[in-house]
């Protein structure tokens, strides 16, 4: 039974926050929660990124909520408008909008140990007015990358008199026809919108590339009406399709690759890029770091459109930005009307986006700093921070569906917060020793991996601790988080809950013993019965006791 005086706060109305809210309603029947969202609509990354060509990197049937599979996706990889519409529809279906406080940014969450609750301070981003509230459980769903990165290290960023913006802040009213457009950066976002922007021959595009990236083929394959009908009407068709996608993504992580196979992979990826790109760019297109060290970019047309006459790649480097354009390191001045920054996001190694204080004056940022970068137990809990859980926390990124990773976390979190919400426990706090042991295992694995072989935003200060990647198969992630290890947590106010768990364990043991005792003559064959009679009796006993193992 849920104690409706308990409250939950969810920070962020993106994919993770909405999934957590849906699970609270459908799995626990709990409705007393608030979602704080700094923007004016749900969707997170899919609300913010509206640039042309924005799409999912993984197949959309695996980047869908497991409880709400959708049979009518248009292509194998969903585009931003239909993904955003999907999450808006789910928010309406589960009546989440009344729970959301929009245009509100959480500034701090401080634990009151005497009252076993958090005091949350938030700010209305439009008026600046601050509000205070309390919650017994806080779930952070702010995502891995939530702040666009502008390269202020380039001299003159603020001098440009034309239009400039980050790709994550694409203005809906922008008209690029007959414009000279500079694109700085060519990672995931740039590779998605450059083909769309350069499709108009009146738009002159120059893409500035500092560091080349590895590409793999990721075509967007349309689903036929027949396939959509099968997904909608044939039982398990979508589930099997989704399972196949998961296997296809996860299998490489299940098998340790030999040096010979890694060499072949690098050669194949090199050939793929050179076969696609114009020969004039060949000397600049191949990275000097091994594939996998940085995010591999899905090629859905970028390499193919490099042959367009209105699109140029520039590898000279940017010296500074002037009022009317860009000056390269070779001294050439190139005039532009628009500059688009496809320069990624600020990773959490710089600053956790809010102040969170738990026991013993411990803060999340302080804990990160003391451990050389973002650190958590199973990417979810932080020592001395009671009843506070991170979705998409440190070392949770896999080559697979980030939504699946978060759904696994949500199932884990629900098991921890259900006793709190029912009033059986006041709080759970993860212990330091299992957190240290887990992260030693993670970092030990990463230290022998490809992820330490290049400079990356996913490492502290670019060259330090790898804080972003989960270095095993996502199958192992699911296995480790299928059930919390209660020995790894300190429970406060849990006496009745502990005794209830012990009584349940004893009751189940007695059930098993009773059934085995009654069935033994039949199992051993000592009773004068035929084998099918023994089987019938065994089934009858099992159905009566309804064992839950």
The tally of helices reads 14
Distance between the termini: 22 Å
Mean pLDDT: 92
Q: How large a portion of the residues is in β-strands, by DSSP E? A: 15-25%
Total count of strands: 23
Indicate the percent of residues in helices. Answer: 25-40%
Largest sheet: 5 strands, parallel
Rg for CA atoms: 27 Å
Name the shape in a single word.
globular
Classify the secondary structure makeup into a structural class: alpha/beta
Pick out the low-confidence regions: 545-549
Main-sheet strand order equals 3-2-1-7-21
Topology:
Layout: E1 8-11, H1 15-28, E2 33-36, H2 45-48, H3 80-93, E3 100-101, E4 104-112, E5 117-124, E6 130-135, E7 137-140, E8 147-148, E9 163-166, E10 180-184, H4 188-197, E11 204-208, E12 215-217, H5 225-233, H6 237-254, H7 259-276, H8 282-285, E13 297-299, E14 311-314, E15 318-321, E16 325-328, E17 333-335, E18 338-341, E19 345-346, E20 355-357, H9 364-370, E21 388-390, H10 402-421, E22 427-430, H11 432-447, H12 474-480, E23 489-492, H13 495-524, H14 531-545
Parallel strand pairs: 1-2, 1-7, 2-3, 4-20, 7-21, 9-18, 10-11, 10-18, 11-14, 12-13
Antiparallel strand pairs: 4-5, 5-6, 8-19, 15-16, 16-17, 22-23
Helix pairs in contact: 1-10, 13-14
């Amino acid at each position: 039974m849920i104690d409706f005086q308990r409250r939950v706060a969810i920070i962020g109305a993106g994919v993770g926050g909405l999934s957590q809210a849906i699970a609270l309603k459908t799995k626990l029947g709990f409705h007393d929660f608030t979602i704080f969202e700094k923007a004016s609509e749900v969707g997170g990354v899919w609300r913010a990124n509206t640039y042309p060509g924005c799409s999912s990197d993984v197949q959309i049937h695996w980047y869908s909520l497991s409880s709400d599979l959708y049979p009518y996706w248009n292509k194998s990889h969903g585009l931003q408008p239909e993904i955003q519409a999907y999450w808006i529809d789910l928010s309406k279906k589960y009546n989440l909008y009344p729970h959301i406080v929009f245009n509100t940014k959480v500034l701090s969450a401080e634990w009151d140990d005497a009252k076993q609750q958090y005091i949350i301070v938030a700010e209305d981003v439009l008026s600046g007015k601050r509000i205070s509230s309390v919650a017994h459980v806080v779930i952070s769903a702010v995502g891995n990358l939530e702040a666009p990165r502008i390269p202020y290290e380039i001299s003159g960023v603020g001098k440009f008199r034309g239009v400039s913006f980050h790709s994550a802040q694409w203005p809906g009213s922008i008209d690029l026809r007959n414009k000279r457009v500079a694109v700085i950066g060519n990672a995931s976002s740039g590779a998605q919108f450059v083909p769309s922007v350069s499709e108009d021959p009146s738009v002159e595009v120059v893409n500035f590339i500092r560091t080349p990236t590895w590409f793999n083929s990721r075509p967007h394959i349309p689903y036929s009406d027949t396939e959509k009908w099968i997904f909608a009407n044939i039982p398990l068709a979508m589930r099997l399709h989704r399972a196949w996608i998961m296997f296809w993504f996860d299998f490489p992580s299940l098998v340790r690759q030999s040096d010979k196979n890694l060499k072949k992979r690098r050669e194949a990826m090199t050939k793929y890029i050179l076969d696609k790109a114009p020969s004039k760019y060949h000397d600049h297109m191949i990275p000097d770091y091994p594939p996998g060290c940085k995010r591999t970019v899905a090629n859905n047309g970028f390499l193919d459109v490099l042959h367009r006459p209105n699109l140029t790649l520039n590898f000279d480097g940017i010296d500074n930005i002037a009022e009317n354009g860009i000056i390269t390191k070779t001294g050439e001045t190139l005039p532009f009307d628009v500059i688009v920054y496809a320069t990624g996001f600020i990773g959490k190694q710089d600053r956790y986006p809010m102040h969170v204080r738990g026991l013993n004056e411990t803060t999340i940022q302080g804990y990160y700093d003391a451990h050389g970068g973002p650190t958590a137990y199973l990417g979810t809990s932080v020592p001395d921070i009671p009843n506070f859980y991170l979705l998409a926390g440190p070392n949770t990124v896999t080559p697979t569906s980030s939504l699946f990773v978060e759904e696994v976390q949500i199932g884990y979190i629900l098991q921890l917060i259900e006793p709190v919400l029912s009033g059986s426990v006041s709080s759970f706090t993860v212990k330091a020793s299992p957190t240290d042991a887990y992260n030693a295992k993670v970092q030990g694995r990463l230290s022998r991996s490809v992820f330490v072989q290049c400079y990356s935003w996913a490492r502290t200060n670019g060259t330090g601790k790898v804080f972003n990647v989960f270095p095993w198969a996502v199958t192992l992630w699911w296995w480790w988080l299928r059930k919390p290890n209660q020995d790894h947590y300190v429970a406060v106010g849990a006496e009745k809950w502990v005794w209830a768990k012990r009584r349940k364990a004893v009751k189940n043991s007695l059930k098993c013993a009773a059934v085995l005792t009654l069935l033994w003559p039949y199992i051993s064959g000592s009773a004068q019965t035929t084998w099918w009679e023994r089987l019938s009796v065994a089934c009858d006993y099992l159905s009566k006791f309804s064992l839950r193992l």
